[in-house]
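Hey everyone, long-time lurker, first post.

I ran two proteins through the pipeline my lab uses and got sequence/structure pairs for each. Pasting them in order. The first:
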Amino acid sequence: MPARPIRRFLRLPRSAARIRADLDDELRFDIEMRARDFVAQGLSPLDARERAVREFGDLDATRRYCEATDMEIESDIRRSHLVEDLQADLRLAWRAMRRTPAFAAVVLTTLALGVGANTAVFSVVHRVLIEPLPYRAPEQLYRLYAQPNADGSDMLSAGELMTLAAQSKSIVGLTAFGNYGGLTYTNDNGAEPWQTASVDTAFFNVLGVHPMLGRGFAGADLPRGAPHVVILSYPLWQRDFGGDSRVVGRTVLLNG
């Protein structure tokens, strides 16, 4: 392996302040050398310095130009060193993996599992805690619970919901929902479970969303003996019905 130049280890990256200080030293040295030449020609030190500055030109413009140039060169040097270091590290890692393939496989597998787990956790946290809910005014949505009863249930009864709706002065809209569990969908290809939820007629209005096709639930769906109505989620519509818009009004067989 070829040895790296020793200056790679001794030379520290220059900061912007260090670059400006070095430029000031260089410009000061240049002015002093010019003034020394004029003193040798017979001028006084004060006159010599004034003439040196005058003949040098615009010090501020020169300083700005040199600073920008040095900053660009320093950035190029850092990038070059970074690429060289990365290439050397990759070569060293490759040789180490070839010498101990079993250990390398364990390390790579551990890294892959760790990265995958972190990605999954971040996705969940982003979806649940960071990304806003896809509803109207999501920051104003609240979920209400009842005091758990003897069997541990914390669901509000229909009477409690009606009382809240009638007496509350701060609740703009109120709706009820519950996890209904699974229903079995049967078609010509067999049967499959559907995960479902039971909601009331105000559910979609409270959330501020509307079905892409067809209508939401209505009061006419409530009386006993009225036809049962189901609203499909978008993924389910795409998966089981191919995104067919003619699905509206179609009869499906659920739990027989």
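...and the second, right after it:
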Amino acid sequence: LLSHEITALGFHLKQNLWLGDFNLLLLDDDISTDVNIAMAARREGVPGKKTPPGILTYLQGTPLGHILAEIETRSEPGAVGVGLELLKLSGESTNDLNLGIKKIAAAARDGRQHDITIALAEESGITVHCNSDPDAVAQPELGHHCETRKYTNKAHQWCGLSIVPETMAVRFGLMLDYPWEQDDEMDAATAGMAQPQNIDDVRKYLKSRSAAKPRPGRNQPCHCGSGKKYKKCCLTKDEEAGAR
């Protein structure tokens, strides 16, 4: 319930239209204050922020913020489609994905592929790969991973994104958008796949000390300060704790 369309815009820019556990909200006009200030700053030159704080500023300085800024300059349908889906994420899902991208980018310094998959609302999800494989290898791998994850989650839509380990820059993206249907071959192909982890366990791990700090190279000094090479110290323990 609201009195003016600017109020709806103000709520959208703050909450991305997420209602949480409610299906009815009464929106007061003061929700549009930041929008009115931005309009006055842009049109009249009065002091104030020209961009209302919220979904337009929330991602600034984060991995997803850099990814979205880069996608804006691209023209490939796959990458653009992924970007549009990322803009629909709730704040909690955004935080999860930001932490996950940081983690796999740090872990990928070992020269291997690392990835994160998050199932999203409304029968969709996203899988992010981080590796240095040539595109001829990386693209089919991401496509296959997304197809199997989409199938096991019985989703109608799935996004895939490949990023560079060192910079987290976008390499390419893909969108799978078609209705889910049972398939005997896919049942056989996905029979041995691990079940998705509980999201609370994933969040706990992503926020853990091992997830927050980049892992050194195998021959670099261990992050624990022992003076030993990483491979002769905490490498095994970190792998058991975590990154796949």
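Reply from user beta_strand_b:
Welcome! Quick read of the second one: DSSP finds ten helices and four strands in the chain. The longest strand covers residues 170-177.
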